[in-house]
Amino acid sequence: MGIVAHLAKYKLQDIEHALAAIPAFKNYKLNSVTGSILIEYDPVIIQPQLVDRLFSGSDQQAEQACYAIAESLNLNGVNS
Hints:
Elements: H1 2-7, H2 12-20, E1 25-31, E2 36-41, H3 48-54, H4 59-75
Antiparallel strand pairs: 1-2
Helix pairs in contact: 3-4
């Protein structure tokens, strides 16, 4: 199913609040018409391959990427 399909279950405002709460995400753009999301992020804080896995079609890969991103944010002092 992947994370984009999961996000479709939530209100647009809730998704925006969640994305805004992640300091490593510099900018984002949601397109409710196409069901897509564009995220500009800091590759020094979050490894690009983790973002790729986050939006893969695999729920397991997306879940693992979420945990790895959270760990990366903590290790880099972003969530301190």
